[in-house]
Write a structure and sequence with these properties.
The chain is an alpha+beta fold. The protein folds into two domains: about 250 residues, Distorted Sandwich (Beta-galactosidase, Chain A, domain 5); about 350 residues, Alpha/alpha barrel (Glycosyltransferase). About 35% of the residues lie in helices and about 25% in strands. The strands form seven sheets. Strands 7-8-9-10-18-14-13-12-16 form a nine-stranded antiparallel beta sheet. A five-stranded antiparallel beta sheet has the order 6-5-11-17-15, with no helix packed on it. Strands 1-2-3-4 form a four-stranded antiparallel beta sheet. β26 and β27 form a beta hairpin. It is elongated.
Amino acid sequence: MITQVTGNGRVLLTVNHNGEWNELFYPFPGQFQHLREMRLGVFDVTGGKFAWLRRGNGYELHQTPYGGGHLPNSVWMGHGITLAVRDHVHPNHDLIARVFRIRADPPRPIRLFAYHAFQIAESMYQDTAFVDPAVPSLVHYKRGYFFEFFADPPYARAVCGEHTLKGLKGTYVDAEDGRLEGRAVAHGAADSVMEWDLEPVASEDTEICLFMAAGRSLPGVHQVRDYVRDGGFQRFVRESEAFWDTWVQRRLPRAPKGLSDHARAVYRASVLMMRHATGANGAVIASPDTSSLVAAGDTYNFCWWRDGGYCAKAMDEAGLYENASRFLEFARNCQGPDGSFFHRHFPDGAIGSTWHPPPFLQIDQTATVIAAVWHHFKRGGDPDVLLDYWPLVKSAANFLASFREPTTGLPAPSFDLWEERLGVHAYSAATVAHALERAARIAEEVGKDPLNWRTASGEIWTAAQREFWNDRLGRFVRSLFPRDERLDASVLFALKLGLLPWDDPRARAVVDAIEHRLWVPGMGGLARYEGDEYYGHENPWIVCTLWLAEARLRLGDRPRCRELIEWVASHATPTLMLPEQIDRGTGEPKSATPLTWSHSTFVDVVHKYAESETRGEVPEE
């Protein structure tokens, strides 16, 4: 499981619960995942014993994010050895600095080994690894991706080999007798090991700075390597730390008052997570987690327009205006010719994989992008923004206004936000009506005629209130064509967008019914819908629980809203990551962890909670 994340919009590094590098993405967060395995090992020369640093190997691991930027920090302790590791991704250069600080009590000679196996461009074939003894450095490459390791002090020995293919375990076995004896070059499924011969003491740190430069050419990574060596290794470590301290002081908003210290810490971590999930080109990935490959055959390393749009709105709330702007620019570049948005895109803008048949639509995703444009303008107040994105809005709104079911006037069938069912859904209808009204407001701001979109919005709202409401049940059904009467937490979001006024007694009845049925006994938290079996039976979801928090806030129950915010914060991981869902039996994170949508919704609801205190009301969506 991912426990820590750091990046610069091009390089994204994750660290797992064993303190090892888990994923290495480049040149975009979420694309490509180049790392197969990383591990650290220690050989006690005096005792003649070797161990990989793993839990249960005689070592205990403690992980606490370091500094204002929550930089990955892992500390192993065992066998009289303490090894602290901090990872930094440089803000300017595509460069990772990994700083080892080692102590031994009693003092004695040890050998530290660092093993890396790559799957460059997400394939473990045709890679090359070679040692350059003149530098010294160690390079892994394939086609247009190059990764060069170098260190201060330099490694004593480095070898290359192969893994997985030909029945091979990996070159890490060469380290297990305490001495490297392998080759200087390897190709195929290439891997490598570096060795440092050390004599740490108990009273002060023995320090190693290991760097990895990423680039698209061999001269490119050499240039970064030489720049670091000429400028001083420690300088680049200090720059990484100083940048994040400055960023937190200058850019990270103060956590709203009225919440526990822990909830405020989760809020700060959530803002940082949104920043790390956003590429320099504006793509916002749903999660860096790749663990779903085994269970589902695919990952969350894509840009969904729903997740990205809500993240952009939360970034605007938290002051990350430029990041939100870059997302909208990315959306403009990915929009389809008819104005709609494909199911999901790769972080480089290519259309992503999908299990939907043509026309590959979740209609709410197109609607969410329009709403994000309006919110971006509302927070920034710059009319030029609306001119910039007018072609996007016009095309998307015309598509939504025409993509209608003729008998009811509701949006035509598409897949629901949970990506499971084709039909006409209450949530989707609400997002479309809301987006068309926002498009009409944008039209007014830039001097265009809003009538068609406003009329379509009103027609959809009227039809939604008529068609989805069920007098017998005393609530809204979640979808039509086919009809599905199961309670679904997404109806809370439809209420937020305007499905009913909050002072309508039916609104409270709907919220009460959803909380009564979908609240998870004992564990707490709100499930997605009746009968949900995704990663377990009716597990509580972070976003659904936060939707309930906002619904209670809009109904005037601030104490309940705060309780729900605190419940979510209490179910963050020890390193402040919010998962997609929680196991209803164990309380452990389930599915993607961290999930950007969970973090962005936490930021959004915390801001609404804070603004309701200062303004006396919850701001309009």
